[in-house]
Amino acid sequence: MTEASEPDIRVGVIAVQGNVAEHAAAIERAGERRGLSVAVERIRQAGTVPDCDVLCLPGGESTAISQLLDREGIDAEIIEHVASGKPVLATCAGLIVAAADPQDDRVQSLDVLDVSVNRNAFGRQVDSFEAPLSIDGIADPETPFPAVFIRAPVIDEVGEDVEVLARWDDDPVAVRDGPVVATSFHPELTNDDRLHRLVLSDAIDTLSTAQPAEMDV
Amino acid sequence: MVEATDISDLKRGTELVKRGFAQMQKGGVIMDVVTREQARIAEDTGAVAVMALEAVPADIRKRGGVARMPDPTNVTEIIEEVSLPVMGKARIGHHTEAQILQSLGVDMIDESEVLTPADDAFHIDKREFTAPFVCGARNLPEALRRIHEGAAMIRTKGEAGTGDVNQAVHHQRTMMNQIRTIEGLDFQEREKWAREHGAPRELVHETAELGRLPVVNFAAGGIATPADAALMMHHGCDGIFVGSGIFGAEDPETMGTAIVEAVNNWDDPDALADIATGVGKGMKGQSNVDLPEEEKLQSRGV
Q: Could you give the ipTM of this predicted complex?
């Protein structure tokens, strides 16, 4: 890797538990489509997050993920990443872990996304479902996003600076709060990488603001 | 403004939704529990799911007799106790036990050789269920037969209740070896391999092209220590089931926490040395080589 030229964007996929490989593959695909050189790091220990331009917080089990982020000391690094305005894509359990209020003290949340979220509000696995979804600026009824909801959380309150990007049955299921884009569903489970392209675009905007001379986009 | 989405378009119990659930367990530890108190401990130690059963495999071995699905009262109590997914074991071929577990709200059904098989010729037709299934397999053809029947997750069939990891390693090595073999075959050779091994041919081609099973593959059976769990990750498993290893240990809470941390740090020997220190005695166990052939559970339901 030392021989290769510096990648345009360094993406960290938090990999303590959950659907990691699929997020990594989606980011790589999205990078290729945008003609960007993307380096993907799978993060299971502290020390790598500070080098990343973008983070993915995958789905999995929010209690297990939040406990491991705390035990490994990755939690403080993610909070710092968001505080410095760098983009994050948080999905399902990732959304719960990011939320200001996970409504459950078994989850030690990062408080980087100003929403209140009701875990597993769609029900148990037998209630899990897939459905075409419209997402503001990304997917309309002619080009819906294939959304897969697995024991999914419902966002039941959003802070005033939070933009709702998609709703399912009136409840927000995709939101943006500054650099953090979060979904109740799993965009990594299908080949549709529009949300992964969105966070890569966010990263380019962030980088070009920070270092206007180096980036040409 | 967000466009309205037609909520009548939703589909439940699809292959994507069932396999997707299994994928969310990756990198995690699924723990066997018999009571709600054990389920609470499992959640607190960082399990990704709990498996409800009437007795841990080591006790089933000791006790003998017919082993069946767990008591619905227990299943319901465990579901109420934890926010984690709750899995439940049904007997091989016992369609009705599986229907009852699904009706109770169990998130995944383990059609398990640890229980006494209900059908000596057929497994459950898992495709018609909304709940996903996990099944054991000792090799690739067995895994592909289960996937063909609708399993959304595969696990090794290590000798449950022995605390001896030997057979889980053997099954995982066999699986990886056979996947590498079919990757190296051309179309006609794969067709022949499928015929000779009694494996569904479309799945043989799919596996060869992916270079891995089309569903998540966990380790199960005989995993008793943090080092055992890390070893199975080293052999390419996606995650770990621990049966008697947690609640058969001297200090279940410490052992559970250590196994969860070992799975996350499986490739870091210094971290593993720290994690394995002071966990107390593991379950006593029984070596596989001492086990008479008729007491082996892995040859049930092939």
A: 0.93
pLDDT in tens, B90-109: 999 999 999 999 999 999 99
| Contacts with A38 (C-beta within 8 Å, 6 or more apart), sequence order | A7, A8, A9, A10, A11, A27, A28, A30, A31, A32, A200
As a whole number, the mean pLDDT across chain A is 93
Q: Is A52 a catalytic residue?
A: no
Q: Compute CA distances B101 → A3, B104, B300, whole Å.
A: 55, 5, 21
> What mean pLDDT do residues A141-162 have?
96
Cβ–Cβ gap A150/B3 under 8 Å:
no
| Chain B contact set for A92 (CB, 8 A) | 24
CA distance B103 to chain A (A): 9
pLDDT digits (tens, 9 = 90+) for B246-265: 999 999 999 999 999 999 99
- Coil, helix or strand at residue A46: coil
Catalytic residue among A160, A186, A196, A214: A186
Three-state secondary structure call for residue A194: helix
Pairing of strands B86-91, A163-168: unpaired
Query: Pick from A21, A164, A189: which is nearest to B16 by CB?
Result: A189
3-state secondary structure of B24: coil
Residue among A20, A63, A71 whose CB faces B27 most closely: A20
pLDDT in tens, A66-84: 999 999 999 999 999 999 9
SS3 A128: coil
Cβ within 8 Å, pair A44-B264 = yes
The two tokens of residue B91 are 């007997």
Which residues of chain A neighbour B46 with C-beta distances below 8 Å?
A: 63-64, 67-68
Note whether B132 and B18 are within 8 A (CB): yes
Nearest-CB residue to A130 (from B1, B11, B83): B11
pTM: 0.95
Q: What is the average pLDDT across B5-19?
A: 88
- At residue B288, does pLDDT exceed 80? no
Amino acid at B275: I
